[in-house]
Amino acid sequence: MATTLDNERQSGGKKVILAEPRGFCAGVRRAIEIVERALELHGAPVYVRKQIVHNEYVVRELQERGARFVDSETEVPDGSVCVFSAHGVSPQVRANAAERNLTVIDATCPLVAKVHQEARRYARDGRTLILVGHADHEEIEGTFGEAPDRTVIVQDADEARRLELPPGAPVSYLTQTTLSLDDTEEIVSILQDRFPGLTGPGTDDVCYASQNRQNSVKSLAGRSDLVLVVGSANSSNSVRMVEVAQDAGARAHLLPDASHLDPAWLDGVTTVGLSAGASAPEILVEQVVARLAELGWADIETEVTATETVVFRPPLGLEPASARAADTRDDSAELLARVSARIEGLLDAEAAHWGSVDARAAVPVEAVRELVAAGGKRLRPTFCVSGYLAAGGTLDDTAGADAVVAAAAALELLHAHALIHDDVLDNSPTRRGVPTVHARHARLHAELGWTGEARRYGEGVAILAGDLAFGYAHRLAGGLPAQARDIWMRLGTEMLVGQHLDIALAAEAAPDPDLARWIAVCKSGRYTIHRPLSLGASLAGRPDLQAAFEVYGLAAGEAFQLRDDLLDAFGDAAATGKPAGLDVSEHKMNLLLALAATGDAEVARLLEAGRQGDFDPAALRAALLDCGVREEVEKRIDALVTTARTALDTAPLADGWRERLGEMATQVAYRDR
Predict the structure, then answer these.
(1) Which of 278, 500, 544, 617 is in the most buried spot, having the most CB atoms within 10 Å?
(2) Does residue 319 have a pLDDT over 80?
(3) Is there a catalytic annotation at residue 139?
(4) Residues 101 and 173 reside in one and the same domain
């Protein structure tokens, strides 16, 4: 396709301008991959609630492979596998699925899940929620279901002008992710004029892919006599693209596939602009290009208006699996699903208990629950269950499996404690793409005009929520055997001491490569990989693996931390979910900075100037880019991954686990978030 479309071909002046980006977005790719992986793992049939994405071609392809699409979860046979579509579902749908004992696989787009989370927050804060979008769209139905008694739907500017709410009521708004950006801005502007104090999400809800595709067709409209958008009629973002092109002054049509192309549309047309909605596969674009060539429009020009690098990974256990490691991944996925259920059950029960006392009593529980629900890499639980399975532990050993689930759940809640407190220490405004606990509650304090200092209140809520997560973690770990409990206590202590040294070096602003490396080993090598692996192996009764897991874990963990340092200094905030350059801005003397300072005079000079009170984070980041430390650290990461893999060469691991753990070392060392 690339060679066909990227080479220009002369055709008497008739031309096609092909938009880039076009077609599948990250959320659509992820949703389709989830159904494909579910079919591979569970076999046909796999039931999918609604269309997985709004494209008839995609649905037909998946049907042929064994997917069964249903309108309601109540149509799915009890105990079957059910995939929720990319558009999200309401809490009632989840409850219905639980009653039917369905194995649920959630393909909700992470950007839609973010809107659901925001809806729950606003409702819990006692705010009326204005939901901007199309009432009959599945995404709006799902979001509305989060708080139906506090939510009103506004579909257009006229409804925004007519909306009546009680005077003085606290009001917030959220939007459907696939709307026209221009229409959304108009509606929100009207609402802001009508309801002073209206608050909204920290970032636009209209997804990056919808924005990019709308911008691309605006550009096409200015250069084309006709704009064609490949997409199905029920695809909201495809329909919006057609409307955007028409609003920009072009003739435009929605094109489900090449067979719907009417040659009469081309009368008097010299230039055709061609794009595709976020749920339209590239093969349909290829077919339209071929049909246009038959009709005389064979000169292809590609117009790039944005570059998309966002990738949304499938849920744990559904990532691509090699044949040799398929069994290991199945068992891991099962245990990790139990870990999630254990955490959710604990936090749901706690939220219900304290919420019955008073809504405010449940606030710290909800803060922990929201952070855990927002996703994250789940590395510590993954390495814990991996250590158990690699050591020969099985799902059939009920006591062992239950113990490793409790340990892995405890690790995730301990990590939630660390993250909530770390965000306060680092003064970070976002985590996993949403406001941090202290930032959100400080903003709430300010918006509602409460007494006292907003920042102090927000940090107080965060400290207490982190402490609560710490307590829940120890509650889950309380029943572990003595040897496992000893490993548990060590990893918690190492993490906290490493955290203290981290802030001590930042306060002193003195680069110390040896101590910075020790901090990386404590906070990542031992805490993230070595101790969780050892904990799992201990629960499988395999103390003989401790030495190999220590070498592997320390090397892979240091590589993980170095990648974290690189992502902070040079990464994309949209991918990582937190601001770039935060370590530099907060004077953190991580290993990357320490290595750069010892090898580059300009970096050392800027750090010394910072110690004297003349701190210039922008200049320091620029110096880091210029000094070559990035290449040095990449080489160091390569060596560490080799060390980690080599440590497993003679270790007596269960079948498939040497290869699997080797892959995991590579994944943590070369990730992009």
Answers:
(1) 278
(2) no
(3) yes
(4) no
Same domain, 346 and 256: no
Query: Is there a single domain that holds both residue 521 and residue 446?
Result: yes
Retrieve residue 97's tokens. 């699925």
Is the C-alpha dihedral spanning 608, 613, 617, 622 positive or negative?
negative
Among 588-592, 648-652, 669-673, the range of highest mean pLDDT: 648-652
Closest CA to 135 of 151, 155, 164, 150: 155
The token duo for 264 is 């009469």
Nearest CA to 69 out of 48, 87, 84 is that of 48
Residue 673: band (very low, low, confident or very high) from pLDDT cuts 50, 70, 90: low
Helix, strand, coil percent content, the chain, rounded in steps of 5: 60, 10, 30
The whole-angstrom separation of Cα 27 and Cα 30 is 5
Within 8 A by CB and 6+ apart from 441, the residues are: 363, 367, 457, 458, 461, 462
Residue positions in the annotated binding site for dimethylallyl diphosphate? 54, 87, 137, 235-237, 279
Tell me how many degrees the CA angle 390-391-397 measures, rounded to the nearest 5.
Answer: 100
Is residue 556 included in any domain, yes or no?
A: yes
Radius of gyration over every alpha carbon of the chain, rounded to an integer in angstroms:
27
| Binding site per annotation, positions | 25, 54, 87, 109, 137, 177, 207, 235-237, 279
Q: E strand or H helix at 301, and its extent? A: strand 299-304
Residues constituting the chain: 673
Buried b (16+ CB within 10 A) or exposed e, 399-423: ebbebbbbbbbbbbbbbbbbbbbbb
Query: Which residues, in sequence order, are CB contacts of 614 under 8 Å at separation 6+?
Result: none
- DSSP element (H, E) containing 175: strand 171-175
* Helix, strand counts (H, E) of the chain: 28, 14
Phi first, then psi, for residue 462 (nearest 5°) are -65, -45
Interval 350-374: pLDDT, tens: 988 898 888 889 899 999 998 888 7
Element (H, E) at 15: strand 15-20
Residue 654 lies in a domain: yes
pLDDT in tens, 260-303: 999 999 999 999 999 999 999 999 999 999 999 999 999 999 99
3-state secondary structure at position 503: helix
Among candidates 264, 256, 242, 244, which has minimal Cα distance to 288?
Answer: 256
Residue 112 has pLDDT above 70, yes or no: yes
Q: Does 53 reside within a domain?
A: yes
Q: Return the pLDDT at 317.
A: 62
pLDDT value at 637 more than 90 = no
What CATH number corresponds to the domain at position 71?
3.40.50.11270
In this predicted model, what pLDDT tens digit does every residue of 229-250 receive, in sequence order? 999 999 999 999 999 999 999 9
The reply to whether 333 and 442 lie within a common domain is yes
Domain that holds residue 39: 26-109
The domain that contains 261 carries what CATH number? 3.40.1010.20
| Tokens 């407190």 -> residue | 421
Residues 19, 30: one domain? no
Percent of the chain's residues with pLDDT above 90: 57
Q: Give the separation between CA 231 and CA 93, rounded to whole angstroms.
A: 28
Quote the number of domains for the chain. 4
Q: Which pair of tokens denotes residue 302?
A: 């590609």
pTM equals 0.55
Question: For 383-433, what is each residue's pLDDT tens digit?
Answer: 999 999 999 999 888 899 999 999 999 999 999 999 999 899 888 888 766
pLDDT at residue number 89? 95
What are the structure tokens assigned to 235, written together?
A: 């695809």
pLDDT digits (tens, 9 = 90+) for 386-399: 999 999 999 888 89
